[in-house]
Amino acid sequence: MAGLQTPGKTYLPRRSNLEKYLSSALIYQFSKGLELLEKPQALLPNTLLGKPEITQLNVSQTEYDPSLKTLLLIHEDDLSPEASSLKDLKPDLLLVAADRLTWRDLDFTENKVSWLNEALADAHQRAARAFPEATIHSEVLTLRANSLAVFFDEHNITQIVMMRPDIGYLQTRLIEMFEDIGNQKINIHYTDREEDLQIRSLATAGFFGFWKKLIASGVLPKKVPK
Predict the structure, then answer these.
(1) What is d(CA 100, CA 106) in angstroms, rounded to the nearest whole number?
(2) What is the pLDDT at residue 207?
(3) Of the residues 79, 97, 138, 216, which has the maximum number of CB atoms within 10 A of its CB?
(4) Which long-range contacts (CB under 8 A, 24 or more apart) does 100-103 make?
(5) pLDDT for position 24
(6) The pLDDT of residue 96
(7) Within 13 A of 163's CA, how many CA atoms are on the CB side?
(8) Residues near 8 by Cβ (< 8 Å), separated by ≥ 6?
C-alpha cells in the first residue's frame, strides 16, 4: 500500500500478521520479496512540499433580519435544518436545491446520483412538515445562477438563510453563483451547527489525533457505551 498522507510512513503489513492469517502454502508461494517487510524504507520525493493551511473561504454574509421576505435554502451538504438552530425559523419560502451540474462534471456514479436524489427528496418532505407555514417549491431545483436569479425575482426574495456548507465543491459553487447574482439586493445569512463550531478548531491533524482531542475535551466519552 502507498502511505500518501504522512511522509515517511510505509503502511506495509507485518509479516507476523501474514503468517497469522494466511496459509503457510500461500506464503511460500508468494514468499519472494517478503524479506523487504522486515526493514521497509519509504521512497520520498527529493523535495517535500509543505501542506497548505486549510481555511474557510471568506464568505461574506449579513445579519439575519426577521423583517425581510426570507427563503430557507436547503442543500445537499446539510439536509436537516429542522434539527439545527434554524428549527424555530419562520421562513416565507422553502427551496431544496441540488448541485447536479457538479455531479455531472465530477462524473458521479449512477448509484451515488440516485442516493443523493433520494436524500434530497426526503429532505423536501421533512422540510414541508417542519416548516408548515412556509411555501415550499414543488420540486428539488438544480443549482444554476440564472434559474435562481429568476426564482428570487419572481418571489421577491430579499433574504436567504441556509446552513453553511463545508469546504468543497458545493461551497465553491454557491459562492460563484451568488457573485453572479450580486446585482440583486439580497441578504445572505449562513448558520453553523453548534457542534461543528465546538469541534472544528480541534481538527488540526490526522484522525487519531482529532479523536484524542475530542475525548480530552469531553465531547466524546472515554469509552463508547455498548
Answers:
(1) 10
(2) 80
(3) 97
(4) 100/142, 100/143, 101/142, 101/143, 101/144, 101/173, 102/169, 102/170, 102/173
(5) 86
(6) 95
(7) 26
(8) 42, 44
CATH 3.40.50.620 fits domain 70-192: yes
Strand partners, 136: 94
Integer angstrom CA distances of residue 138 from 93, 100, 135? 11, 17, 9
pLDDT at 74: 96
Note whether 100 and 143 are within 8 A (CB).
Answer: yes
C-alpha cell at 62: 449579513
Q: What is the number of other CB atoms lying within 10 angstroms of the CB of residue 70?
A: 22
Q: Which helix (H) or strand (E) holds 21?
A: helix 15-21
- A 10 A CB-CB count for 54 gives 8
Among 168, 78, 174, smallest CA distance to 126 is for 78
Q: Are strands 135-136 and 187-191 parallel, antiparallel or unpaired?
A: unpaired
Provide the grid cell at 205: 491533524
In the chain, the amino acid numbered 117 is: N
Look at residue 110 in the predicted model and tell me its pLDDT: 95
pLDDT recorded at residue 8: 60
Query: H/E element holding 159?
Result: strand 159-163
**According to CATH, where is 3.40.50.620 located in the chain?**
70-192
Q: How many residues does the chain have?
A: 226
